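My main concern about presentation is that the manuscript never shows what a single data entry looks like. An entry of this sort, consisting of the sequence and the corresponding backbone structure tokens, reads as follows:
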Amino acid sequence: MMPPQAPRGRALSTLLTRRPNKKFRFAPVKPAPPNPPVAVFVHKISTILRSSPWHSASAELRELPIRWDSFTVNRVLKTHPPMEKAWLFFHWAARLRGFKHDRFTYTTMLDIFGEAGRISSMWHVFREMQDKGVVPDAATYTSVMHWLAKSGDLEGAVRAWEEMRATGCRPTLVSYTAFMKILFDHGRSDEAAGVYREMLEIGLSPNCHTYTVLMEHLAGVGLATNEPIYYVKYYDLLCDLAIRSFWVGNLANTAKKKLTIRKAEGNRQWRLTGKFKAVLEIMSEMQEAGIVPDKAACNILIQKCAKAGETLVMRQILQQMKQHSIVLRHAVFMEALEALRLKNQCDHLLREVNPHLSFEGCEEELDNQRTLSDTNYLVDRSIIINLLANKNFIAIEHMFNGMINKHIEFDTELISTIIQVSCACYKPSCALVAFRYCLQIGTVLNRAAYISLIGFFTRENAFQMVLEIVHEMAKTGINFGTYLVYLLIYRLGCAGLCSYAENIFYSLPMEQNIITCTALMDAFFQAGETEKALDLYSKLRTQNLPISSGTYEVMILGLQRCGKFADAEVYLGEIKDKFHKRKNVPLEHAVAKKTSGDYETFLLALLGD
């Protein structure tokens, strides 16, 4: 007989309902460590090849847990281990089971031998490549061409190009660019033009490196020789090169206009200036097309400018480098610095573009005290730039007043900018302080700053100040230009200051022509100085200068204003006999004629130019 069942109490029911559900839990499996990336193995293999002799290096390579393929071998070769080790490694890899060299590994091995100047070994690898049934591609032929040309074998490079074309291998943009550079470097510009045209015809668009090759050659023509430079012929070539490219428009038109202006017999300095202007035009067109010159292009052009002494063009390239945060290599920086010093020009822009080299070149000239002074100068210059950006002209004026007696010299660009901005914002006191500062320390302003001062004080009828600025501008040797002198003489004549007009006219003998003479005659007539006007006209006749219809009209109106109607009729008969049958009036005659017509319209037109 079974004992009776015990009653279920509260504790038992709780135990039954809350009994935990125990399940067996497996321990988590730890994932296997990932394989190191290929770059780790590449670095390790390169280190082994550089630091160990080959017999021990080969043993270490066999122990590496890596799958040997052409990609890995090519990456190792591109680290440029020692040439002998690279060749041994190349052959060692060829004996591995399941491994076969491809066009990439062969091309890299070609580059190693070519860079070392082992042209015979390079040809051996190339022939072995063909014997193994590996078809060379455009990169392989481009490498062969490059190293053959580097070794001086131009004909061999040309044969490699022709062989590439004959085998049906289609050249790439890199191939065309490399072959163009080879031809340019060896003086075969006409053939380079044909290669460029062919590249465009098959639909390849030039890239930054292609334009760099063009600009480098354009800037470098004639720098290494004193022989005559066929400048006009090269401009023909440049137009021919550009004719199918997307930057052809402005450059080709500008070049063709220059062809009608100058001939190849021009002086060497003009030719260099013209070439570098064309380089700037190419850079401008590149940027408009969305192609920004890279660091290599800027370094090459700055170096060419430094060798040619083209500091003005160098500054414009430095401005573009500053916009795109491009810096120079140390060697190029030192060449540019030396070029600026030879021209006695400021190097602050060069140092601003290259802050990492800003203290280079100072050791020979500056002691500790001067270095401290330069530091203070940089601080003062930065303060002035910030004040100018905020248009705080009063503070700038106070700073200049404090620095005049201390003989602290600022660069021309900064002072010229201050003067131009001050005149544009109608702050004559600040512009005058900056101008007096330049006179005190002997700094020469740029032409735009002088024109801003002349224009501002002319509008204010402060002609005594205008005369002072004109004389200072004449001392610097800056070119005035016929139209600027004409405008000054005309405005002084209208103000009744013919003595000032006469002073300016005779102080600028290079600007004495039919236009300025006509303006001075008009000034004499307006001031009632009839005899001086007639004497000037007589000098024009004795010097056999061509008398324009405008000059006759000024004479006629001036004589009529003075009551000499009989003399006016004589000149009226001359102008009818000389000009009534002419349809095409020369440019100078047309400009001189404006002195008797609508002055204000003509002034606005000239100021717009």
